[in-house]
Amino acid sequence: MPPKSTIPDLPQPSTASNDSMLSRKFGREVANYFSGSPLNRVGFLRSDNVFLSQALKHPSTSFLATKDLQPLISGPAKLAWLKFDDIKSVIGEDPYAQTEEEMIKAYDSEKIVPQMIFLGIDEAISGEGKALSYTNKKNTYTGAPYFAVDLTPKGNVKEECERLIKEWDGRGLKFATGRPMDWSAPDAALYAEARQLLDWNARNPFCAQCGQPTLSVNGGFKRTCPPTDASLSKSRLTNAISTTSSTPTPSTERPPCATRTGISNVCFPRTDPTVIMAVVNAAGDKILLGRQRRWPQYWYSTLAGFAEPAESVEEAVRREVYEESGILVGRVVIHSTQPWPYPANLMIGAVGQAVPEGEKIDLGNDPELDDAKWFDFGEVREALRVGTSALGEEAGPEYKEGGLRLPPQTAIAHQLVSSVVNGFASGAAKI
Amino acid sequence: MPPKSTIPDLPQPSTASNDSMLSRKFGREVANYFSGSPLNRVGFLRSDNVFLSQALKHPSTSFLATKDLQPLISGPAKLAWLKFDDIKSVIGEDPYAQTEEEMIKAYDSEKIVPQMIFLGIDEAISGEGKALSYTNKKNTYTGAPYFAVDLTPKGNVKEECERLIKEWDGRGLKFATGRPMDWSAPDAALYAEARQLLDWNARNPFCAQCGQPTLSVNGGFKRTCPPTDASLSKSRLTNAISTTSSTPTPSTERPPCATRTGISNVCFPRTDPTVIMAVVNAAGDKILLGRQRRWPQYWYSTLAGFAEPAESVEEAVRREVYEESGILVGRVVIHSTQPWPYPANLMIGAVGQAVPEGEKIDLGNDPELDDAKWFDFGEVREALRVGTSALGEEAGPEYKEGGLRLPPQTAIAHQLVSSVVNGFASGAAKI
């Protein structure tokens, strides 16, 4: 049996390049936009503050700055990468000087440090001085490190952030606006990782289990609920002084929290699985598409929705299609997946097939859609040729008013639709 | 083109029956344990308190009681179903008497009501008196409703819960222990839905955005951060009285919270996507399995781990296999999925193939595994025949000490291994 040929090829070309050490030479599935990161995340080194500290200060290290979750860019569709010296005045000489244990012991909820994320290392970069080499027990990891840092002006770093942002603005570095759908695959993937983790930290400053403020650890990939808080000493001291003249030794201890005595998922970043599906009719010659009221006229896409607790992806596909369109789906096959960092989705793309007795459209269950319709494959093929665009943009020059419009190639919806009308559901082996 | 044949069959028989209206007649994929729910969740009715109230009191309605997340059972592997009258003394005459808007306005963080989950309706049940019929705008939904209710003794319902539990105990109804892996598919799926949602509510009594206590709404599928809290009036009144003799009108208003002005995922149940994968070697005749130290001797399974923010499932598979075993995976195909309610996982099962230059096992990156090894397909087929069992149980009578042991048929790991050694990676069309 020849190597690499034991699982047949997929019909679609990749839309994102696969540059990472883990997939550069090997991955052959549909790699959707926002995937295709060039980094090895070396997640097992995130708890090693000696590594993080060396990575932070290495000359090969790059920093992505964000403001209100938008990245600093050096031009249209191009991330700006900063050096340690550019941001030292905000993050300090070494935010990783302490071990996690020491950080937890010294926790002070009133001390605000800008949120940082360790993104990973680019192992395509090597050579003395050009890349960091770090040995952890017996293995050595070599590459150029990447971090993201939130420079939204606030708290005690407000003025310094504002100063830096003004300075960069003078050098032509601005913060992006909107949602990028035309960036290079590596830039899109790096930004996706940074954005999703910065957003998660920003949405979860308090412990959902006990309501107390939490501390970011593990290179930005975990939040922990410390047992003590130095700022309590200050507030308790103030209270004590107001009622007694002696000098007490106020406690810094916080109420107990269940997350301290076991592993709880509320401490870890959240990713919400969603399903997105191209549904074909029983005869295999029509595809179900829907539209939301706020979309441009004639614009349709695949149906989609959040997976619910305790259902399989296949069940979620059937439920969402039924809720939104009334169609009953039988067979479901998963096609490919796409990270979607707005704020934290994992889109699981599937192809489903309606059963003959379940093809009648009914928008009356959950009125989420403005319309849903069966489209002939031929009409869809024509729309893929002339009518695709990003949501805010015009269709191409050959597009004729009234014709079907569809999402761009960087959307997994486009990949699913394209797969289906180009033979995915033909009965031949496609995956 | 004949209907239903446009997407080829999967090689594996279902391990769970598909009883639901949405999949009963149609689903043909591998339906893993904990999927296969017989219910239509009718999620769009969860915000309709008139529906919930009617469902609660209908004679066809069943209640699953839990204590510390364990379900009440009427015998080994059999859920006990209660009626409204059995639990009325704890939940009250009608916990759904108010609309969500009214509940939020009347919010009092000191008032504890047992957590309830609306699971869905069984549409296989119909007929006057035997099933609830409810018309929402233009559609009518008919079936027997199902709820779960947490009867863990605590707060103001502690004594009544204890009394009921003792009474049921006398009738032979006990709470289960451990994790059931041998229940019927419908019972397992119903319990999975109940458990995951009860657990999520229990882990998230506070708003992660602002630290204030939250209110369960939407049939248990959402938590909201109310703008006022009646109990603040009481505490502020107490404080006010201690410092002044006049009678103030204390405010019940809480500090602002960002979740009140937009949609935030922290308000919705959390599901953590995980990857679990059978990895074959480049030649397609060996499979990679690993073991954890706490497992019985000779017991191996597929590798698995949590998906990280902003990576595709395919990337997560490559990263986890690299971290845990050092193996470099090229091609990845998703096989099937399994809900896993301990506490909130969605297991996404995949088959991956190592590249020829990446087959060397290295446990030194992230030392999670006690061992990882390549196994010949022949050895694995024999283990599937004689050496499978649940974790705490003995292998079958034909098993010989020293032979490979594997997880039971109800585990997705078993399904993946079985698929691979029975031809999934042979090049023939299997999905």
UniProtKB/TrEMBL annotation, chains A, B:
Cofactor(s) the protein requires to work: Zn(2+); Mg(2+)
One annotated Gene Ontology cellular component of this protein: peroxisome
Residue stretches making up the Nudix hydrolase domain: 269-397
Any Pfam family matching the protein: NUDIX-like
Its EC number(s): 3.6.1.22
Bias (Low complexity): 242-252
Keyword Membrane: no
Chain positions covered by the region annotation Disordered: 1-21, 236-257
CDD domains in UniProt: NUDIX_NADH_pyrophosphatase_Nudt13 (cd03429)
Family under the similarity heading: Belongs to the Nudix hydrolase family. NudC subfamily.
PANTHER family: NAD-CAPPED RNA HYDROLASE NUDT12, NUDIX HYDROLASE, NUDC SUBFAMILY
Name of the featured protein: NAD(+) diphosphatase
Organism: Polychaeton citri CBS 116435
